[in-house]
Amino acid sequence: MTIRPERPEDASRVRHVNELAFGQPAEADLVERLRQACPDSLSLVAEDDAVVGHILFTSAVVESAGRRVLGMGLAPMAVLPDRQRQGIGSQLVNRGLDILRARGCPFVVVVGHPEYYPRFGFEPASMHGLVSQWEGVPDVAFMVLVLDVHAMAGVSGVAKYREEFNEVA
Fold this sequence. Notes:
By secondary structure, the chain is α+β, with helices and mostly antiparallel strands. The protein has a single domain, classed as 3-Layer(aba) Sandwich (Aminopeptidase). The chain is 26% helix and 33% strand. The protein has helices spanning 11-22, 26-37, 88-103, 149-152, and strands spanning 2-5, 42-47, 51-64, 67-79, 107-111, 123-124, 130-132, 142-146, 157-160. Strands 1, 2, 3, 4, 5, 6, 7, 8 and 9 form a nine-stranded mixed sheet that branches. Helix 1 packs antiparallel against helix 2 (26-37). The radius of gyration is 15 Å and the shape is globular. It starts with a strand and ends in a 9-residue tail after the last strand.
């Protein structure tokens, strides 16, 4: 299994993985919009003879007391249904977080399964004074991984993903 940056020729396979993993085209459409609109994104694929998994990190922001802290949002992450529960998703998350740490990213937010993401160090965002921009997201499902405690010291408020996420049906 190889985890590597997405290349232009991977686009159709990444779309296929997202459509199968989510059972609908909405997330695949979102990936395509974000790919064009967000040049600072981190898009990785898991390859095992073919692309079997994908993860995307795009910019997220918290505005707090006159400060604007730019971090990343994790979404979406997809693995082909017949390849799930084999550690591929964990490899994608770990590699992505390693890259973001090396880049000096201060935080990563995710809306996800509270049984899954804590293994990577994610905690309920409310423990750090952060709330989701979307009403109705359960507190346990909106999580943050603080990568730079100094950059996040005293930061609280609404964490916002890119506008393209508001267009997902």
